[in-house]
Amino acid sequence: MSVALRLEELLARLPGTVRRGHAPPVRAGRDECLPTGLGPLDEALDGGIPRACLSEVQGSGSSGITSLALRIAAGAVARGEWVAWVDAADAFDPGGSLAAGLDPESLLWVRPPDLRVALAAAEQLLVLGGFALVVLDVSPPVASPAGPGSSGRSPAASSGGRRTRAREDARLLATGHPWTRLARASSRARTALLALRRDGGSSSAASLRLEMRPAEILWDRRGGAPAILEGLRARVLVRRRRGSRMPEGEITLRL
Fold first, then answer.
1. Pairing state of beta strands 49-50 and 33-34?
2. Distance between CA atoms of 75 and 103, rounded to whole angstroms?
3. Is residue 179 in some structural domain?
4. Largest CB tally within 10 Å, which of 84, 232, 242, 254?
């Protein structure tokens, strides 16, 4: 009998309820990773972002964070897998997702009213299971005027109210408890959890942390025609890869 089976047998004999701690980090192999679809990044990460783990992508609003997440999500959907996107920032653009090749029929888009609901929704999706990837965008909500096409959310009535909410959200993101819960849920579900963060913070529960520098906008100016947006050139710094022997470093990507 293997050590793992023997341990399970011994645990089953213990009286009462046994609570397991956070599962040990997955040592990422090619079958334990979710490919990003970007060759240089997959090579640097030894296959892609780890399944069954919390990963973080950090950067400013102009660094290509959302574009990178869309590429990863589109790749998962193209392989026949399901993706959930928890949009606490209210920044997800369905048109942009289609342009990135993300089939909306295989995407669950969740638009929570606030950060606490977003964290709870991400955990419930992981518990539900069936998703290869859950993207959690915890950036501050994008304020937009009411009218056709608006999100329908009601921003705080005053700047003071918005500042209070921002401080509460910052304190919540700075605590380790929600991130530890999410990392555990991700491990149990064998689902890759990708947190998009523009708050400058990070969590010790993350097995992988990527930092994105401001992206360079690429324009197509051929033929003397008006310039057309061609894409982004982004720089990605790999800061943490728990369980991997690959060195940290910087990668340049075309998004």
1. antiparallel
2. 10
3. yes
4. 84
- Rounded to whole angstroms, how far apart are CA atoms 138 and 91? 10
CATH code of residue 245: 3.40.50.300
pLDDT tens digits for range 211-250 = 988 767 667 777 776 777 666 777 888 887 666 666 667 7
As given in the structure block, the two tokens for residue 253 are 């990507």
What is residue 85's predicted lDDT score, i.e. its pLDDT? Answer: 96
- Please, how many CA atoms are within 13 Å of residue 94, restricted to the half-sphere of its CB? 10
Which of 61-65, 67-71, 128-132 shows the lowest mean pLDDT across its residues? 61-65
Of the chain, the percentage scoring pLDDT greater than 90 comes to 33
User: 159: which residues sit within 8 A by CB, 6+ positions away?
Assistant: none
Would 167 be classed as within a structural domain?
yes
- For residue 50, being part of any structural domain is answered with yes
Q: How many structural domains is the chain composed of?
A: 1
Cβ burial of 219 (10 Å; 0-12, 13-18, 19+) is: exposed
Integer Cα distance of 157 and 161 in angstroms:
7
Query: CA dihedral in degrees (157, 148, 114, 71; nearest 10)?
Result: -140
Q: Which two tokens stand for residue 117?
A: 């609901």
Handedness of CA 183, 185, 187, 189 (dihedral sign): negative
Classify residue 33: in a domain, yes or no: no
Prediction pTM value: 0.74
Range of the domain at 46: 42-143+155-254
Mean pLDDT score, 59-70: 84
